[in-house]
Amino acid sequence: MGCGELSKIKKSQSVPLLISARVSKELRKGETLNTDQNSRLSYRALSVKVPEYNEKICLKFRIFEEFHDLIAQEISSSMDSNQVLYEYITDIKKIKKYWIMFRSAVSYFDLATHGSCIDDYKISDGVAIMLISCVASGKNFDTDILFHIETPYIVFLSTANCHKETIFMMKAWQNLTLAMLKLSGKKIDSLEKILEKFFMLIGQHEKYIPKSNEERDIKKSKKHIKNLILVLKKLISDLKDSHKQMKEFVGTFKAKRSEIEELGELALKKLNYSGDQIVHYIICK
Q: Which domain of life is it from (predicted)?
């Protein structure tokens, strides 16, 4: 997925942390851009004032792997009809609530920072892109932005005088950090305890020898429990990884600062403020 090859990209060990080396060069055949000027997301690609960019096809959002989401929906629809899982209904609702909260926040930030064209996109990639846009909008790291080693990690004191695309990223980041703040520490511990419950439950089911009239129900129960474990393991892993990424990013920000500021100044000169412009014309300059 992503954009057509705009230019040969040289790898760099500095900021933007090999983002340029991971910008997708695969051209999606058969895709077309919506030219409706009232469609904010689809029209952004056409509004870029770089002639050759209009000739390329670029996704405006990431096509996520939907497997886990489908499982979550299946869990939700089946829990009332499954007696074995009914006593765990509170835990299942909690899993679904947290999953949707985190997944939607990540997707929104991904959209704002144009993660669709970065292979193996990470939250920290999006943060680097956002900060480049902040510099282009005249924000100063010493007076306008606070950095913390714990959530919310990065706080904007004001969005005054910022370009609308920069504000779009800032709001998406605030939305994501709110989800991360709610889903940290004790919340992750509680999810791990729920996971232990389901590991114990599946262990009991694996050992149990069902009677002939129980085989169908036991098979269905095992399927749902395994799906729950799959979703929960993924959620816990993603939450821990997102916090780890941001601790590392903030902890090493001093080493990245000068280059982010340099890229931000270049973005200002080119009037490139949006995620797609920064990915393709600043990072991959």
A: Eukaryota
Q: Could you tell me which residues come within 8 angstroms of residue 123 by beta carbon, excluding any fewer than 6 positions away? A: 106, 109, 176, 242, 245, 246
pLDDT tens per residue across span 203-253: 887 777 766 666 667 777 778 888 889 889 999 999 999 999 999 999 999
Question: Do 109 and 176 belong to one domain?
Answer: yes
Give the pTM. Answer: 0.76
Domain count, the chain: 2
User: 10 lies in a domain?
Assistant: no
Helical H segments across the chain, by residue range: 40-43, 67-78, 83-86, 89-112, 123-136, 164-182, 186-207, 215-251, 253-270, 275-277
Instruction: Note whether residue 154 is domain-resident.
Output: yes
Among residues 229, 276, 2, 257, the alpha carbon closest in space to that of 131 is found at: 257
